[in-house]
Write a structure and sequence with these properties.
0% of the residues lie in helices and 45% in strands. It has 274 residues and is mainly β.
């Protein structure tokens, strides 16, 4: 159920010009366990330590009721070099195992509740190191596409889509989030614990971000150096160093992925009689 055959699929949004999206990858998480030929959980690792206070452990990554579940717990654990972490969480990625240049990437997801203060789930893409140009390109020169990020907190209840990029190692030209959905200040309330579809459409000239079919953020090649190497998928839930959980924050929390899919755009002049 993971790597899909190339069959044209009719879906609601469209790429540039006339044509259709062709399914290239799909995981519905309908098996008893995670397919580790595609997905790699982090094992006793942190991310951006010491700025992020969570330790990623495989026990927090599992399949349940047709979902990939990333669990976050207020739990003390010993990490690399004997460091003590006060939170554990889950991370999976497809680095070296599956990656794609351009296309549509989508997932149907349930996020942690708003009272899970500090939980920071994300669906993002990074350059596959071995196939990047140049090889092992540094961050953020190769780009980072954040299809969604969400920080649970009592004051705002929006997801954001962003593109991080730069012209030299460590020089992030997009420090702030790209756009929020719903926009900050909006009276629209969305229950993110319900399932919503998050998507990105990426081609040579633009990145287009969607929530439930609504295109709420774009980045063009006139605004930034867009990625031009194949990228792999990451799902994780961090603990936000900028909005640390208080004693009343809800734990454990669950980041649930019902499915993830990827497509390539097939222009009509490549379809023949289709």
């Amino acid at each position: 159920p993971t790597v899909a055959e190339s069959e044209p699929l009719a879906i609601a949004t469209a790429g540039t010009g006339s044509g259709q999206w062709v399914l290239t990858f799909e995981d519905n998480f309908d098996g008893p366990t995670l397919n580790t030929s595609i997905w790699k959980p982090r094992v006793n690792e942190s991310h951006c330590s010491p700025c992020e206070p969570e330790l990623y452990v495989p026990e927090n990554v599992y399949i349940e009721d047709g979902n990939l579940v990333l669990r976050t717990q207020r739990q003390q654990a010993r990490g690399p070099h004997g460091n003590i972490y006060n939170f554990t969480s889950g991370w999976v990625d497809t680095e070296t195992r599956w990656y794609q240049k351009y296309g549509r990437f989508e997932a149907r997801v349930s996020l942690p509740p708003q009272n899970a203060t500090g939980n920071w789930p994300a669906f993002w893409l990074m350059p596959n190191p071995a196939t990047a140009v140049p090889k092992d390109v540094c961050w953020p020169v190769g780009g980072e596409i954040d299809i969604y990020e969400y920080t649970a907190n009592p004051l705002m209840n929006s997801v954001c889509g962003s593109y991080r990029w730069g012209t030299s190692c460590g020089d992030n030209k997009q420090v702030l989030p790209g756009s929020f959905y719903p926009p900050l200040g909006s009276k629209t309330h969305i229950d993110w614990t319900e399932y919503h579809e998050f998507a990105l459409e990426w081609d040579e000239t633009s990145l287009r971000f969607f929530v439930d079919g609504v295109n709420y953020h774009n980045k063009t090649s006139a605004q930034a150096n867009l990625p031009d190497s194949a990228m792999y998928i990451i799902f994780d839930t961090a603990i936000a160093w900028y909005w640390m959980p208080g004693p009343d924050a809800a734990f454990p929390c669950y980041h649930k992925i019902d499915y993830v899919r990827a497509y390539e755009w097939q222009a009509s002049d490549e379809q023949g009689s289709q």
